Structure formats: structure tokens, C-alpha cells
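INFO worker-7 received task bundle
INFO bundle size: 2
INFO processing item 0
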Amino acid sequence: MCLLNSPGGNTAIKSEQKTEGNSFFSWLLVLALLGAWLSVGVVWFDLVDYSVVGALGGVYDADGDGDFDVEDAKVLLGLIEKPVTVASTENPLGERDLHAETLPGENKESTSHSPHGSASDAEPSLEFKTEESRPANQISPELPPTTQPVPTSVSTPESITETTEFKEEPSVESKEEKEAKKKKPKLLNKFDKTIKSEINAAEKLRNKGKFEESLRAFEALVQKFPQSPRCRYGKAQAEDDLAEKIHSNEMLLKAVNTYREVAELPDVPPDLIKATLKRRAERQQFLGRTRGSLATSEKLVQIFPEDISLKNDLGVAHLLLGDNKGAKRIYEEVLARAPHDGFAKVHYGFILKSENKIAESIPYLREGLESGEPGTDDGRFYFHLGDALQRTGDKSAYDWYEAGHRQGHFASVWQRSLYNVPGLRAQPWWMAEETRYTALVKMLERNWLTIRDEALSVLDSNSGQFLPEDEYLRETGDWGQFTLWQQGRKVASSCRYVPKTCALLEHYPEATSCKRGQIKFSVMQAGTHVWPHTGPTNCRLRMHLGLVIPSKGCRIRCTNQTREWEEGKVLIFDDSFEHEVWQEAESYRLIFIVDVWHPQLTQLQRQTLSPI
């Protein structure tokens, strides 16, 4: 007889269902009590270190709502799925002015010692500065020039996020870093251990993102225990976090001062001194207080002379001040003690390159990048290693450009600018109609004789207005430039010499307001060769109006396409792509250069992008 058809069978089924129901509520009760007692034990009896509870948060708070409740029990029992946590899209602060308006969708990342673009007709400069952004890597990959022609147009997904800085890649940990991870920093002195529960309670608020409440709690602790280093350090961290939340330079300055107070207290554990002064130096640098950051870094090195990483940071602080000699001395000291330090090698190679010691810079840049150590995976180092190899005739340059592209530092092997807005149309050569600036092009071509005559009057006067190119872009020859607008600002002293030309341009804001470009005359003497190079940003296009062009011998290559200038005609190209110039005529070549905003940039972007 079938059990399912019998009264007894129905009873068995009901009994089984009842048992399952009881089991569910039993588990629910047990887990709820477990969560409740854990909370009581932690808060009132300091039974569990909050760092441990944080690690277990994913177990007890199964549904991700910040506490343990019935929904957590359902997740643990498999009755509902665990929700997927979506990473916050809120942009971290990346501007020195925390009140500055951020572009919609802009991903500004505060990073140390990122490359800064040149303000001239040049590649990203050898000046060492910070920049809070990442490079575009959405443009379709392209092969080196010998293997693939450049398409006429490469379209990319639309975006308005500026990326001048860089995709973080997992880096190879040094032996010291692995040891540091094993050894937990000791931030509490003997007295602070006696008030650990009160410190933990305030710290828990900070970890939950309740920065205002955490700050009030730490301020009360500092008032109660003024000699406690850990309480004051917690106050500094809460001020730091709150400054980031409300975008306040004033609050961040308070944090910087509080970090200083921590280090000046008696009986501060060495690990806490190191943590607080390192953070102070970083935030001073963020605020643009570069000299203060340098002083803090020097103090750290004095206190911890055996810590190579602090010495490396001191070298960066010198570079950010433009003190290449001081940085060079620091890295020579580091390499004397740690000859295989990859961080010191790439920075030392960078300095040698800035001194135009091309061949000497190559092994340091190459070995530093090959080390894979933290701080070496930077687009600037790939850029300058490739550039140095190109200048010595080494074809492996494009291997390094390709590696930089794979790491997300370059939009492509050809397009190696470092200050980029992704999503902009990317092609080496442009037609006037494609730019939407046909009125400007027609005006230049219609008035080219007027523009030429004013330029010749300055050139013939020998007034010293044409200044020599000084960024080591020339292999041979002479190349002078006379600037009328720089970073969107009119050079009034220059316009006095060419008033008609400046008056003509006043009506074209796409050029005169271009903060990432220039308007200038360029004269190149016979026998000049300009190395292959790229401009600093994809945010501009460059117009060349031919003024005095010899019949033969003058040409410009952009990617693998070479063209020649014509008098009275405008050439338009994107100088973020690799380009090279030859002047092999018997007389000088004179052109007028007008940079314009990339036509796909919005008005908001044009107003808020930083100058280059």
C-alpha cells in the first residue's frame, strides 16, 4: 500500500513539515541570540577587538545592512540570496581645492607624483608634479607603426571623465612589505591600553562612516586624556575623513595640525609616530604645502634613518619642489645602500633623463620598471624609457610603449599623452569640417598674409621675442617660438608686437580659452630635426597655418602619415599622437600654431579642466 495515499502517510508529511518549521525558528533564535550577545560583549565588556569583528562582519551581517537581524538569518539558512554589494561611485577627492566643482562622472584619484604635461609644443614634461587622474585606456589598441596603419578615425565610448592618472595594478610586494604585513603596528602606549575600550568605541563610529560623531567622541577623549597619543591620532583621522566628506580645506588643515600634535606628545609609540607623520606629509602635499611636506619627510628620515621607503619619499618631496639636485642626492644615497631598489632606480633614471643624459637614464628606468616594486608602475616612466630608447635608435622602445598601453597608462601605442579625457574621438589627422571650427580655419586662411607680415616684422627686428625651444626635443638645428596665448591667457606684452593678429583671434574662444594649449608663431631653421614626441593631453587639436614654407624639405609625420605645409593653408592634427618634424630646406620655415579645444568636450569640461 502506498504510504502517500494513507492517513498515516499524511500524518508523517505534516509531522515532517512541522519539524522543518521548528528547525527554522530554532536556528533563527540561536543566531539572533548569538548576534545580540556578541554585540553586548563587544560594546560593554571589550571582549572582542574591533578589527576582528570587522573581519567577521561578512558572516554575521549576511545581508549587508549593518546589523544582525531576521534577514541575516534567512541568508545564513539559504532561504534568500545574499545581496551583491555595489562599489560606491562617489569620487574620492582629487583636487587641492576641496570646494572645486567636479565634472559629472569624473574620477579624480589622489595619487602621488604623477606626471604633469608640458605647456609647450612638447611631450609630457620632465618637471615632477602631482596630478589626480587616470589615463584613457578605452581607445582601441593599435600596434607599433611598423605593423599596423592608423585608421582615419577611431571612435570611443562617450564619457566625460578626465583620466590623467592611472590604473592601479597589483604590484610585487617587497620583502620588507611582506614582513610589515605580518607585524601589526603597535599604536597604543601603556596608558592607551587602559582606555582601549573608549578608543575602540570612538573608532567604531569612524569605521561606520559616522565621522561627525566620531570626531565629537575623540574630542571628548582628548579633553579627558590630553596626553593620550592614540586619542589625538583618532581625532586627526576623524578630521581627515570629515574633510574629505564635506570637501573642506579648513577641516583638512585642522587634521594636519592635529597630526603634528600627536608626534609632539610624550611616550608616542614609534609605529604611531611613523603613521601620523607619513599621513601628515601626504595631506600637506595634497594641500599644496610642498615645503611643509618636505620638512615632515625630513623629520621622518631623521627619526627612522634605516627605513629606505621614507628616504624614497623624501626624494619625491624634493622632486615636487623642483629640486632635482636634492632628489638626485637622496636617490644616490638610497642606491648606495640598496642597489636593487626599483623605486629609487626609476626616479633616478627620470632625473638623469631630465638632465638629457639619455643613455645613462635607460638602465635605471628599465630595471626599475622590471622590478615591479610599488611606485614604479607609472606612465611617466614608461613614457621616458620609450623616448630614451627611441633617441638611441633602439626599436624596443615600442615594446615599452605597448607595455605602458597594456597597463592602462597610454590610450594606444601611438597616442601616449598622459592627461586624457576618455571617449573623445581619436585620430591623428583632422579635416576642418570634422572639428566644427570651420569659421576659425577660414579666418586664418583668409588673413594669412596679415598674420605673416606681423610675424616677419617681429622676426626681422631681432627683438628677442622668438625664444629657443628648451625641452630637449631637437636632435639638431634651431627652433624658436613666439607665444601670444598660454593656457588660455593672453600674453599682452607679445600682442603689442602683433596687434592685428591678436585682434583677429579674440573672436574665437575655442582657441583663446583653451587652457590646455597655446597660440604662437614657430620658426624652424634649415637642418633641424625634432625627435618623435607626443603632447601632454588629448583635450586639444593643433592647427598649423603655413606662413613661409620652402618649396622642398619641410615635412611633419603624425603616426605613420607624413604631410607637408602649404603657405596660406591650415593643417590640423592631434598632437597627443606621436609626431616628428624634419626641416631639410635651404631656408627657414615659419608657421602659426593655434591650439583649440577638442570639439567633443562640453562647456563644463572646458571650464573646469586644469590648465596645461
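INFO item 0 finished
INFO processing item 1
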Amino acid sequence: MAITVPNLIKERKFPFILTLSVLLLCFAFLIFTNTKSNPYLLFTTSTTSTSTTTSALQSSLPSSPSPPRQNDGVAAAAVVINADPNSPRIDWKLCKGTVAVDFIPCLDNFKAIKALKARRHMEHRERHCPDPNPRCLVPLPAGHRIPLPWPKSRDMVWYNNVPHPKLVEYKKDQNWVRKSGDYLVFPGGGTQFKDGVISYVEFIERTLPTVEWGRHIRVILDVGCGVASFGGYLLDKNVITMSFAPKDEHEAQIQFALERGIPATLSVIGTQKLTFPDNAYDLIHCARCRVHWDADGGKPLLELNRILRPGGFFVWSATPVYRDDERDQNIWKAMVALTKSMCWKVVARTVDSSGIGLVIYQKPVSPSCYEKRKNNNYAPLCDQKDGKNSSWYVPLSHCLSLLPVDSKGNLFSWPMPWPKRLSSKPPSLSTESGAEEMFYEDTKHWSDLVSDVYLNNLTINWSSVRNVMDMNAHYGGFAAALIDLPVWVMNVIPIDVPDTLSIIFDRGLIGIYHDWCESLNTYPRTYDLLHSSFLFRNLTQRCDVLDVIVEMDRILRPGGYIVVQDNMEIINKLSPILHSLHWSLTLYKDQFLIGKKGFWRPTIGESKS
């Protein structure tokens, strides 16, 4: 007999009908509640855009994992993830060698460095990553402690955390750093800061009042930064400085900077482009930074021109500016010729009361000067095809970067004054349909998520956090949402996702390009919190997740945190590896994995975990 409703009634199977009806109603209710909008799931698979760029960015953002939901106003606690005794054991070993404690795989590859045919252009200070990646764990220096809190750390750090005395002796007459008992103390001196860095910072603003620290000038690059006191004291003026220097004979200067809680990275102007986008920095500073700007046809200065924002300034404080000896004057004449060919204008040149001088150049805001130049061969204009923001393992160019224009041919404007630029439309944001709406939605998404989840419901002691890295930063929304905390964020744009790093700089934030299949240019134990939002989905298709975890362990401080927002498939892959490192793990809403690193390191006889 056919199964129909009349037949069921005739056979008095009313309970079956009632049960079936209840099930259908419950199913319909579940579908309805799961399709309601949720503040923690910004982009869905149904989102479309007419813009190819916008669509590419959408596809790189979270689309499928279930968002965390609040339980009728009662915050759900993060749950502890216990180690699974049946997980495969990992045979961890300590790194060995003279540099093991401060091992940086891509900068300490001595075999590759020894095989270099030339070192004239600092090739030995550039990246030479080993293959395969080393899977050893860096040992801790003897007596290592939890770092001093900010802002105390700006002026003093534990000596045992960065036990490098060479710079103390080498720069003892210039007040870079002093050893005092258990501490390294940073008095705020420098080669060019004879009256102290605060006086020097004020001297620059008096020389050129239009810099308006912390309003007009917000994002700075400090070349050859020493121990980064210049950038450290500019933080008081709402200026964020990317301090950089190579790993060289000025032992551990970048490690000192990061231990102090000051933004810094290891890099060198050698044969390859810096890992920053075009037109990024408001001001670039060099105080006796030992870079030969006119070398190799002027490539080093042309690289600064590439990353300097139109209308931005280059502050050069060096002996050729204010000394009359033959060597210095020859360098000055070469700089005059080079900057003239680049259409840079001298807007100030002066000497302070201590006898230290500086010159301030400004990059043009209009291409009219480029068209009027008589000698274009000295610094020809780059081809239009070279205009893409791509600087990962790219050789330096001997050409002048074109001024940036949007898709309609309009020159970019200077960003809004700080702090408005943080939340206003970035000049480099795509003009294509949907891009502006996506930017504002992303800003709100991270503001809500950080407020509702990161600051209140995760097992993080934010008072112990200073140096933060966002490993997959998108528009920099996570960093923007943390702006009122006493932290700074290094925003990383992976090389295999849509390039949004220019937008991050437009917002008054800092960042770099990086490939997470390789080691990062930083010392061990330099970050308090590593954050990744849906990074591993694409990354696991290109490299082994174990290598990424080893690198995260290398750069995270003992007592530091990782926060991984991802789906449970990824979290289940990461958890056993992190447990094998003796990290404590908690999980919030099946989407946020929080790991806390301890002081454990493998010892002889205890290699397996």
C-alpha cells in the first residue's frame, strides 16, 4: 500500500504524524537560526563582488567556520585542552653551535654565506635560508627572566635576557647602553644625540615645524637604528617607527630594541629590495647609519625613494652635511647630484648647538619635475610594469619609481591626520566596487571581535603583552582594534595572499611581507603574542605545519601567547605539536586556540615529548 497521509489517518497512526511534524519544525528552526547574521563571521561564501581584486581578498578571509556565539549574555569560558597520550611523539633537540641561543636560520646559514662570491654589497647580511628548515629548538640564555613591563622596559632590561656586553664597551662614550648590576640601561644617547634623543627629536621639529610629530608624520623608518632610542622616544608623540639594522658587528642592537618593547626588524640595504610596499613611510631617518647612498649608481637611495610617500621627508644627519674635509665634501657633492636627479628638494639644512647638523629632503608630490629633467639617464623612470608592490627577493632597481595613481589616474593624497587616518578610507584602497564597504566592515568586525572575545574571554594576561605580531594581517584590523592598549603590532602580509600592506601603512600602522614557509628576520624570544586568523588554511598546502610551529616557538618569549583563529581541523593538527613543546592550551568556542609557552627546553636524556 502507498504511504500517504490519508492512509496513515485511516490506520490511526497519529503519533507518527505528530512526531514527523515536530521533527520538521525543529529542522526549520535550526536552518533559520544558523543563517542569521553574526558579528564574528564577516564574510560568507555567498558574498560576491564585481572586482577581481576584492574577490581575491574575500577568498583569503574566513568564510566557512562556525562563529562563536554568546550564551544568553553569559560568557563561555575557554576550556583546557589536555595532551592526548596516543599522539605521535616528537624527538625535539636543542640547536647547537656558537650562535644557538640567538639562532636566526636565514641569517646564520654560514655554509651559504661562506660560498658567496661577493660581499661588497652586504650580500652576507641578506637572507640565505637553509633547505630543509632546521627543526631544533633554540636554548634559553642562562638566567633568562620574564621581560620587564612597558614602559619601564624602554629604559632598562634584564642583562641575562640579552647578555651581550660588546656594544656597552664599543659605544660607552655615546650613551647608547650601560650595564648596571642585573640590568642594561638605555640613557637615550646616540652618536648624533649628544644632548639626548629627546632634544634631537625636538630639534628636528623646530627645524621643520610641518613634520607635526604624531599628527602629520605618523609612520617612520629609522635606518641603521642602533638600539632604537629614536623610535622609542617618538612613541610618546604618537609616532610609530620601524627601526631596522643588519645583524652585524654592532652586536644584538635589534635584539636590544625588541627586548625594550620598541618596534624593530633585522634588514639591510644590500642587493635586494626592502620588504615594504611602495610609498609607505611618511618620513625616513638616518643618523650616521653607514649606508653609502650613492653607491652602485645610487640604488640605495632610489630604494628609499620607492618606499617614501610622495611629499614625505628624508632626514639625514651625517658628517658630510656639516663637515668640510675632502672626503665628506665629495660625499655631499655626490648626494647633491643624486637627489637633484630624483627631484628631491632640500627643505632644511642646519646645525644644532652641539655641532651636529642635518639636512631634510622632500619627495615630490607631482611628476612634473620628472618630465623636465635634463639628465634622465642617471635615474630613469621605472617601467609601468615594475609598479606592482612586490619586494620579496626582488633585486634593487636602478630607476625612479613612478608616483602612485588610482585606477582612474588620480594621484594619491596624503592620509588624514592621525588618529583619523586609522579608521578613514586609505588612499591606496581600491576604487573598485565593494572595496570601501569591505574595509569598513572589516574594521567593525575586528573592533567587535577584540572587544567581545580577545580582551574578555581568552586566557591572556594582557598586562604582560607588549610586542605583538599579526601573522596574517589583511587590512590591519586586529592592530587597529588594539590601538588603545600599551602594545604595538607588527602586521605581516604573507606573500601568497592579496597584497594589502599599503593599506596598513596608510592607516598609520607598520608591517612587512613574509613567507611563513621560511624563518623570520628576528631574534629568538622577541614577541609576547603571535596572532593568526585563518593563516594555516593556505599555508599547509605549501609547507609542513611543523616547520611553522618551530618558528613560532623560536620567536615567542617564555610566558608568551599564541592565538590561532581557525577551524577544528587545523586546531587538531596544531594541538599535539604544541603539547609536545609542553605549552598549555585552551580552546574557546571551537575556533580560538590559545597557547602559552613555558620555559621547557629538551635536555640530554629527555628529547622525546
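INFO item 1 finished
INFO post-check item 1: DSSP finds 20 helices and 18 strands in the chain.
INFO post-check item 1: The longest helix spans residues 14-34.
INFO worker-7 idle
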